[in-house]
Design brief:
Length: 396
Protein backbone atom coordinates (compact mmCIF):
# COMPACT_ATOMS: atom_id res chain seq x y z
CA UNK A 1 0.00 0.00 0.00
CA UNK A 2 1.32 3.41 -0.94
CA UNK A 3 2.15 5.73 1.95
CA UNK A 4 1.74 8.70 -0.42
CA UNK A 5 -1.98 8.16 -0.92
CA UNK A 6 -4.31 10.86 0.35
CA UNK A 7 -6.80 10.20 3.13
CA UNK A 8 -9.79 9.36 0.95
CA UNK A 9 -7.79 6.71 -0.88
CA UNK A 10 -6.32 5.26 2.32
CA UNK A 11 -9.85 5.05 3.78
CA UNK A 12 -10.92 2.82 0.88
CA UNK A 13 -7.83 0.68 0.26
CA UNK A 14 -5.50 0.90 3.27
CA UNK A 15 -4.59 -2.40 4.93
CA UNK A 16 -6.48 -4.60 2.46
CA UNK A 17 -5.54 -8.28 2.53
CA UNK A 18 -7.20 -10.80 0.24
CA UNK A 19 -7.67 -14.53 0.63
CA UNK A 20 -6.91 -17.06 -2.10
CA UNK A 21 -10.25 -16.11 -3.68
CA UNK A 22 -9.23 -12.49 -4.34
CA UNK A 23 -12.55 -11.06 -3.14
CA UNK A 24 -13.38 -7.39 -3.83
CA UNK A 25 -15.10 -6.70 -0.49
CA UNK A 26 -12.99 -7.57 2.53
CA UNK A 27 -13.66 -11.04 3.94
CA UNK A 28 -15.04 -11.55 7.43
CA UNK A 29 -12.89 -14.10 9.21
CA UNK A 30 -15.50 -14.97 11.81
CA UNK A 31 -13.32 -17.27 13.85
CA UNK A 32 -11.93 -17.12 17.37
CA UNK A 33 -9.10 -19.63 16.80
CA UNK A 34 -6.68 -20.88 14.17
CA UNK A 35 -5.44 -24.36 13.22
CA UNK A 36 -1.79 -25.42 13.12
CA UNK A 37 -0.55 -28.10 10.74
CA UNK A 38 1.82 -29.55 13.32
CA UNK A 39 2.57 -29.31 17.02
CA UNK A 40 5.90 -27.77 16.06
CA UNK A 41 4.16 -25.03 14.11
CA UNK A 42 1.94 -24.23 17.09
CA UNK A 43 4.97 -24.04 19.36
CA UNK A 44 6.79 -21.75 16.93
CA UNK A 45 3.83 -19.41 16.58
CA UNK A 46 3.45 -19.01 20.33
CA UNK A 47 7.14 -18.21 20.58
CA UNK A 48 6.98 -15.60 17.79
CA UNK A 49 3.86 -14.70 15.79
CA UNK A 50 4.67 -13.42 12.30
CA UNK A 51 2.98 -10.46 10.57
CA UNK A 52 0.52 -12.70 8.70
CA UNK A 53 -0.01 -15.25 11.47
CA UNK A 54 -2.66 -15.41 14.17
CA UNK A 55 -3.22 -17.35 17.39
CA UNK A 56 -6.52 -16.31 18.92
CA UNK A 57 -9.06 -13.57 18.11
CA UNK A 58 -8.40 -11.86 21.43
CA UNK A 59 -4.81 -11.38 20.22
CA UNK A 60 -5.55 -10.66 16.56
CA UNK A 61 -7.65 -11.65 13.53
CA UNK A 62 -7.25 -11.01 9.78
CA UNK A 63 -10.36 -8.81 9.51
CA UNK A 64 -9.48 -6.87 12.65
CA UNK A 65 -5.92 -6.47 11.38
CA UNK A 66 -7.21 -4.94 8.14
CA UNK A 67 -9.15 -2.35 10.12
CA UNK A 68 -6.11 -1.59 12.30
CA UNK A 69 -3.81 -1.13 9.32
CA UNK A 70 -6.34 1.04 7.48
CA UNK A 71 -7.08 3.43 10.34
CA UNK A 72 -3.35 3.70 11.14
CA UNK A 73 -2.63 4.64 7.52
CA UNK A 74 -5.49 7.14 7.54
CA UNK A 75 -4.15 8.75 10.73
CA UNK A 76 -0.54 8.74 9.50
CA UNK A 77 0.66 6.45 12.30
CA UNK A 78 2.70 3.26 12.44
CA UNK A 79 0.19 0.93 14.06
CA UNK A 80 -3.15 0.52 15.82
CA UNK A 81 -4.98 -1.86 18.15
CA UNK A 82 -8.75 -2.23 17.75
CA UNK A 83 -10.92 -2.50 20.85
CA UNK A 84 -14.45 -3.51 21.77
CA UNK A 85 -15.60 0.09 22.30
CA UNK A 86 -14.35 3.65 22.45
CA UNK A 87 -14.13 3.50 26.23
CA UNK A 88 -12.08 0.28 26.00
CA UNK A 89 -9.69 2.31 23.84
CA UNK A 90 -9.47 5.17 26.35
CA UNK A 91 -9.03 2.76 29.26
CA UNK A 92 -6.50 0.63 27.37
CA UNK A 93 -4.38 3.58 26.26
CA UNK A 94 -4.17 5.02 29.78
CA UNK A 95 -4.05 1.98 32.03
CA UNK A 96 -1.57 0.04 29.89
CA UNK A 97 1.07 2.75 30.31
CA UNK A 98 0.48 3.97 33.89
CA UNK A 99 1.40 2.65 37.32
CA UNK A 100 1.05 3.76 40.93
CA UNK A 101 2.96 6.99 41.55
CA UNK A 102 2.63 8.29 37.99
CA UNK A 103 1.18 11.73 37.32
CA UNK A 104 -1.34 12.60 34.60
CA UNK A 105 -2.53 16.04 33.53
CA UNK A 106 -5.94 16.14 31.85
CA UNK A 107 -8.31 18.71 30.48
CA UNK A 108 -11.37 18.78 32.70
CA UNK A 109 -13.87 19.12 29.82
CA UNK A 110 -14.40 15.43 29.10
CA UNK A 111 -17.11 12.91 28.29
CA UNK A 112 -18.53 11.52 31.53
CA UNK A 113 -17.03 8.03 31.17
CA UNK A 114 -13.57 9.43 30.38
CA UNK A 115 -13.83 11.56 33.50
CA UNK A 116 -14.79 8.46 35.51
CA UNK A 117 -11.63 6.61 34.39
CA UNK A 118 -9.43 9.54 35.39
CA UNK A 119 -11.20 10.48 38.63
CA UNK A 120 -12.23 7.09 39.95
CA UNK A 121 -10.22 4.28 38.36
CA UNK A 122 -6.71 5.68 37.91
CA UNK A 123 -6.69 7.38 41.31
CA UNK A 124 -7.90 4.15 42.95
CA UNK A 125 -4.65 2.52 41.84
CA UNK A 126 -2.35 5.30 42.94
CA UNK A 127 -2.12 7.48 39.84
CA UNK A 128 -2.24 11.21 40.58
CA UNK A 129 -4.44 13.24 38.22
CA UNK A 130 -4.45 17.02 37.82
CA UNK A 131 -7.26 18.71 35.87
CA UNK A 132 -6.86 21.96 33.95
CA UNK A 133 -8.83 24.22 31.65
CA UNK A 134 -7.68 22.68 28.38
CA UNK A 135 -7.85 25.94 26.45
CA UNK A 136 -5.50 27.73 28.88
CA UNK A 137 -1.86 27.01 28.04
CA UNK A 138 -0.70 28.67 31.26
CA UNK A 139 -2.62 26.08 33.26
CA UNK A 140 -0.97 23.28 31.27
CA UNK A 141 2.45 24.84 31.95
CA UNK A 142 1.77 25.06 35.68
CA UNK A 143 0.36 21.54 35.96
CA UNK A 144 2.90 19.58 33.89
CA UNK A 145 5.92 18.63 35.97
CA UNK A 146 9.01 16.45 35.74
CA UNK A 147 7.24 13.26 36.82
CA UNK A 148 4.23 13.75 34.53
CA UNK A 149 3.85 10.53 32.57
CA UNK A 150 0.97 11.48 30.29
CA UNK A 151 -1.39 14.26 29.29
CA UNK A 152 -4.91 13.49 28.10
CA UNK A 153 -7.54 15.61 26.41
CA UNK A 154 -10.34 15.64 23.87
CA UNK A 155 -9.13 17.64 20.86
CA UNK A 156 -12.70 18.95 20.58
CA UNK A 157 -14.49 18.68 23.90
CA UNK A 158 -17.83 17.00 24.54
CA UNK A 159 -20.32 18.72 24.63
CA UNK A 160 -19.18 22.37 24.71
CA UNK A 161 -16.87 22.03 21.69
CA UNK A 162 -13.73 23.69 23.03
CA UNK A 163 -10.68 23.20 20.80
CA UNK A 164 -7.38 22.32 22.45
CA UNK A 165 -4.09 23.28 20.79
CA UNK A 166 -2.51 19.87 20.13
CA UNK A 167 0.83 21.26 18.97
CA UNK A 168 1.29 23.64 21.91
CA UNK A 169 0.26 21.12 24.59
CA UNK A 170 2.42 18.43 22.96
CA UNK A 171 5.51 20.65 23.13
CA UNK A 172 4.93 21.24 26.85
CA UNK A 173 4.42 17.54 27.52
CA UNK A 174 7.37 16.36 25.44
CA UNK A 175 9.66 18.76 27.27
CA UNK A 176 9.35 16.51 30.34
CA UNK A 177 9.10 13.24 28.41
CA UNK A 178 5.34 12.83 28.86
CA UNK A 179 3.16 11.04 26.32
CA UNK A 180 0.30 12.92 24.67
CA UNK A 181 -2.96 10.95 24.41
CA UNK A 182 -5.72 12.60 22.38
CA UNK A 183 -9.35 11.52 22.25
CA UNK A 184 -10.08 12.61 18.69
CA UNK A 185 -13.70 11.57 18.19
CA UNK A 186 -15.25 14.98 17.44
CA UNK A 187 -12.35 16.03 15.20
CA UNK A 188 -12.66 12.80 13.13
CA UNK A 189 -9.76 11.11 11.33
CA UNK A 190 -10.75 13.06 8.20
CA UNK A 191 -10.30 16.58 9.58
CA UNK A 192 -7.57 15.95 12.18
CA UNK A 193 -3.81 15.65 11.78
CA UNK A 194 -3.19 14.93 15.46
CA UNK A 195 -0.13 12.67 15.01
CA UNK A 196 1.49 15.19 12.67
CA UNK A 197 0.75 17.95 15.19
CA UNK A 198 2.48 16.17 18.07
CA UNK A 199 0.12 13.60 19.58
CA UNK A 200 1.81 10.32 20.51
CA UNK A 201 -1.41 8.34 20.85
CA UNK A 202 -4.84 8.93 19.29
CA UNK A 203 -8.00 7.13 20.41
CA UNK A 204 -11.33 6.91 18.63
CA UNK A 205 -14.72 5.57 19.44
CA UNK A 206 -15.28 3.85 16.09
CA UNK A 207 -18.92 3.62 17.15
CA UNK A 208 -19.26 7.24 16.04
CA UNK A 209 -18.17 8.58 12.63
CA UNK A 210 -16.14 5.52 11.61
CA UNK A 211 -19.18 3.24 11.60
CA UNK A 212 -21.37 6.26 10.98
CA UNK A 213 -24.67 4.40 10.84
CA UNK A 214 -25.35 3.36 14.43
CA UNK A 215 -24.71 -0.34 13.88
CA UNK A 216 -21.86 -1.51 16.05
CA UNK A 217 -19.57 -0.72 18.97
CA UNK A 218 -15.85 -0.38 18.43
CA UNK A 219 -12.77 1.61 19.32
CA UNK A 220 -9.13 1.93 18.34
CA UNK A 221 -5.82 3.06 19.83
CA UNK A 222 -3.36 4.50 17.29
CA UNK A 223 0.33 5.23 17.80
CA UNK A 224 3.87 4.01 17.26
CA UNK A 225 4.50 0.32 16.67
CA UNK A 226 6.56 0.24 19.86
CA UNK A 227 3.70 1.60 21.97
CA UNK A 228 0.93 -0.43 20.31
CA UNK A 229 2.73 -3.78 20.30
CA UNK A 230 4.95 -3.29 23.33
CA UNK A 231 2.56 -1.59 25.76
CA UNK A 232 -1.05 -1.74 24.55
CA UNK A 233 -1.24 -5.22 23.05
CA UNK A 234 0.06 -7.14 26.11
CA UNK A 235 -2.47 -5.34 28.31
CA UNK A 236 -5.48 -5.71 26.03
CA UNK A 237 -4.90 -9.27 24.88
CA UNK A 238 -4.79 -10.43 28.49
CA UNK A 239 -7.69 -8.28 29.73
CA UNK A 240 -10.02 -9.05 26.82
CA UNK A 241 -10.90 -5.71 25.22
CA UNK A 242 -10.56 -6.92 21.62
CA UNK A 243 -12.86 -5.92 18.75
CA UNK A 244 -14.99 -8.66 17.19
CA UNK A 245 -14.19 -9.60 13.56
CA UNK A 246 -17.76 -8.80 12.44
CA UNK A 247 -17.63 -5.32 13.98
CA UNK A 248 -14.21 -4.78 12.41
CA UNK A 249 -15.75 -5.54 9.02
CA UNK A 250 -18.54 -3.01 9.70
CA UNK A 251 -15.89 -0.42 10.54
CA UNK A 252 -13.97 -1.19 7.34
CA UNK A 253 -17.13 -0.56 5.33
CA UNK A 254 -17.69 2.66 7.29
CA UNK A 255 -14.21 3.95 6.51
CA UNK A 256 -14.91 3.67 2.78
CA UNK A 257 -17.43 6.51 2.99
CA UNK A 258 -16.26 8.48 6.03
CA UNK A 259 -14.75 11.40 4.09
CA UNK A 260 -17.91 11.91 2.04
CA UNK A 261 -20.13 11.67 5.12
CA UNK A 262 -18.31 13.94 7.54
CA UNK A 263 -17.66 16.63 4.94
CA UNK A 264 -21.36 16.71 4.08
CA UNK A 265 -22.31 16.72 7.77
CA UNK A 266 -19.89 19.54 8.56
CA UNK A 267 -21.26 21.61 5.68
CA UNK A 268 -24.80 21.22 7.04
CA UNK A 269 -23.64 21.91 10.61
CA UNK A 270 -22.12 25.19 9.44
CA UNK A 271 -25.35 26.15 7.68
CA UNK A 272 -27.39 25.42 10.82
CA UNK A 273 -24.96 27.29 13.07
CA UNK A 274 -24.96 30.38 10.83
CA UNK A 275 -28.75 30.34 10.58
CA UNK A 276 -29.38 30.21 14.32
CA UNK A 277 -26.28 31.97 15.70
CA UNK A 278 -28.28 35.01 16.82
CA UNK A 279 -31.68 33.39 17.26
CA UNK A 280 -33.69 34.99 20.10
CA UNK A 281 -34.49 31.58 21.64
CA UNK A 282 -30.80 30.85 22.24
CA UNK A 283 -28.48 31.97 24.97
CA UNK A 284 -25.60 30.78 22.83
CA UNK A 285 -24.82 28.83 19.66
CA UNK A 286 -21.62 26.81 19.96
CA UNK A 287 -19.94 25.66 16.77
CA UNK A 288 -16.18 25.76 16.17
CA UNK A 289 -16.62 26.71 12.53
CA UNK A 290 -18.23 30.03 13.41
CA UNK A 291 -15.98 33.07 13.39
CA UNK A 292 -17.47 33.99 16.77
CA UNK A 293 -16.15 30.78 18.35
CA UNK A 294 -13.34 31.50 20.82
CA UNK A 295 -10.95 29.05 19.16
CA UNK A 296 -11.93 29.61 15.53
CA UNK A 297 -8.36 30.62 14.61
CA UNK A 298 -7.19 27.27 15.98
CA UNK A 299 -9.89 25.52 13.94
CA UNK A 300 -8.40 27.10 10.83
CA UNK A 301 -4.86 25.92 11.56
CA UNK A 302 -5.53 22.62 13.31
CA UNK A 303 -8.59 21.31 11.46
CA UNK A 304 -8.28 23.02 8.10
CA UNK A 305 -11.20 25.28 8.89
CA UNK A 306 -13.63 22.40 9.41
CA UNK A 307 -15.82 22.86 12.48
CA UNK A 308 -16.91 19.24 12.72
CA UNK A 309 -20.28 17.51 12.62
CA UNK A 310 -21.60 18.51 16.06
CA UNK A 311 -22.98 21.80 17.35
CA UNK A 312 -24.37 22.72 20.76
CA UNK A 313 -27.05 25.26 21.55
CA UNK A 314 -28.06 26.67 24.92
CA UNK A 315 -31.81 27.24 24.82
CA UNK A 316 -33.36 30.00 26.90
CA UNK A 317 -35.70 28.67 29.58
CA UNK A 318 -33.55 25.85 30.94
CA UNK A 319 -34.52 22.19 31.13
CA UNK A 320 -38.21 22.74 30.40
CA UNK A 321 -37.48 24.65 27.20
CA UNK A 322 -34.80 22.14 26.19
CA UNK A 323 -37.20 19.22 26.65
CA UNK A 324 -39.93 21.03 24.70
CA UNK A 325 -37.42 21.58 21.89
CA UNK A 326 -36.40 17.90 21.88
CA UNK A 327 -39.98 16.65 21.98
CA UNK A 328 -40.99 18.88 19.04
CA UNK A 329 -38.22 17.84 16.65
CA UNK A 330 -39.56 15.64 13.84
CA UNK A 331 -36.38 14.66 11.96
CA UNK A 332 -33.58 14.24 14.53
CA UNK A 333 -33.90 11.36 16.97
CA UNK A 334 -33.37 11.74 20.71
CA UNK A 335 -30.43 9.53 21.61
CA UNK A 336 -26.96 9.73 23.15
CA UNK A 337 -24.78 8.70 20.20
CA UNK A 338 -23.22 11.01 17.61
CA UNK A 339 -21.55 10.89 14.22
CA UNK A 340 -24.50 9.01 12.74
CA UNK A 341 -26.16 9.34 9.33
CA UNK A 342 -29.27 10.35 11.27
CA UNK A 343 -29.25 13.66 13.15
CA UNK A 344 -29.27 13.08 16.90
CA UNK A 345 -30.23 15.51 19.65
CA UNK A 346 -29.00 14.96 23.22
CA UNK A 347 -29.59 16.70 26.56
CA UNK A 348 -26.17 16.19 28.22
CA UNK A 349 -27.15 17.39 31.70
CA UNK A 350 -29.61 14.52 32.13
CA UNK A 351 -27.92 11.83 30.02
CA UNK A 352 -24.25 11.65 28.99
CA UNK A 353 -23.06 13.94 31.81
CA UNK A 354 -25.79 13.33 34.38
CA UNK A 355 -23.42 11.74 36.93
CA UNK A 356 -21.49 15.01 37.31
CA UNK A 357 -22.25 17.24 40.26
CA UNK A 358 -24.04 20.51 39.64
CA UNK A 359 -20.79 22.33 40.42
CA UNK A 360 -18.94 20.29 37.78
CA UNK A 361 -21.66 20.93 35.22
CA UNK A 362 -21.52 24.65 35.95
CA UNK A 363 -17.74 24.64 35.60
CA UNK A 364 -17.93 22.84 32.25
CA UNK A 365 -20.77 24.98 30.92
CA UNK A 366 -23.26 22.11 30.81
CA UNK A 367 -26.37 24.14 31.51
CA UNK A 368 -29.96 22.85 31.90
CA UNK A 369 -30.77 24.35 28.49
CA UNK A 370 -27.82 22.84 26.60
CA UNK A 371 -28.58 20.59 23.61
CA UNK A 372 -25.84 18.68 21.77
CA UNK A 373 -26.87 18.29 18.14
CA UNK A 374 -25.06 15.73 15.98
CA UNK A 375 -25.79 16.62 12.37
CA UNK A 376 -26.69 13.77 10.04
CA UNK A 377 -27.03 13.41 6.31
CA UNK A 378 -30.54 14.77 5.92
CA UNK A 379 -31.31 17.74 3.70
CA UNK A 380 -30.07 20.92 5.37
CA UNK A 381 -33.19 22.92 4.52
CA UNK A 382 -35.39 20.28 6.17
CA UNK A 383 -33.27 20.31 9.32
CA UNK A 384 -33.25 24.10 9.52
CA UNK A 385 -37.03 24.26 9.19
CA UNK A 386 -37.46 21.57 11.86
CA UNK A 387 -35.10 23.33 14.29
CA UNK A 388 -36.86 26.67 13.69
CA UNK A 389 -40.21 25.14 14.55
CA UNK A 390 -38.85 23.41 17.66
CA UNK A 391 -37.17 26.58 18.92
CA UNK A 392 -40.43 28.50 18.54
CA UNK A 393 -42.30 25.86 20.57
CA UNK A 394 -39.58 25.85 23.24
CA UNK A 395 -40.34 29.49 24.11
CA UNK A 396 -44.11 29.14 24.50
Amino acid sequence: MSQSWNKRTQAVHGGTRRSQYNEVSEAIFLTQGFVYETAEQAEARFLECGPDEFIYARYGNPTVSMFEKRIAALEGAEDAFATASGMAAVNGALVSMLKAGDHVVSARALFGSCLYILENILTRYGVEVTFVDGTDLEQWKSAIRQNTKAVFFESMSNPTLEIIDIEAVSKLAHAVGAQVIVDNVFSTPVFSRAIEQGADVVVYSATKHIDGQGRALGGVIIGSEEFIRGTVEPYLKHTGGALSPFNAWVMLKGLETIALRVNAQAETAMAIAETFENHPALEQMMYPGLKSHAQNALVQSQLGGKGGTVLSMDIKGGKGAAFAFLNTLAIPVISNNLGDAKSIATHPATTTHQRLSEAQKDELGITPGLIRFSVGLEDSADLIADIERALDVSQK
